[in-house]
Protein: Dihydrofolate reductase
Organism: Leifsonia soli
Amino acid sequence: MGRTVLYGSVSLDGFIADEDDQPGPLFDWLLNGDVPLDDGGVLKVSRESYDYVRPYWDEIGVTIVGRHVFDTTDGWEGTPPAGVEHVVVVTHRGRPEGWFPEAPFSFVDGIEAAMRAAQELAGDRVVEVAAGDVGGQALAAGLIDEVRMEVAPVVLGSGKRYFGSVRGPQLLEGPEEVIQGDGVLHLRYRVRR
């Protein structure tokens, strides 16, 4: 079984989006370099960011997201992001009727069921859990091995929290890695067991 990683871009004050669900400049680092990060060359980052992020993205077998992220992105029109093979959506509602029936998306109720489905699909590859409410639920349930943060140089002041509504302390070890990119600080922590 592969490791489980809570992942996302975040402001200095711990938010993944503002009150209106807009990320603002959190993803600017994905466009301010000269090294193509994705196959289409749309995302261009610094060499330091590429050397850190690309190997990680290549390890991801499955991404877990909440229904809110799915709805906000329209499920990336049936194509999982960043070359991921499968997306598991945590939701009380199933696949939208008529929505890309062949798309490699599973819809499950609850974070534990989502993690079981994702780990079965991913095998020994990484299961990535999107930051926010679902990521916080997975961390609180003891289902996360590692936390990766792409810290952008911005203070949003309020909005959607990186760890969702986690209550109580969650202990991490490290940081295991601290990489400075152009307009981003890449951090990686292990979750203390």
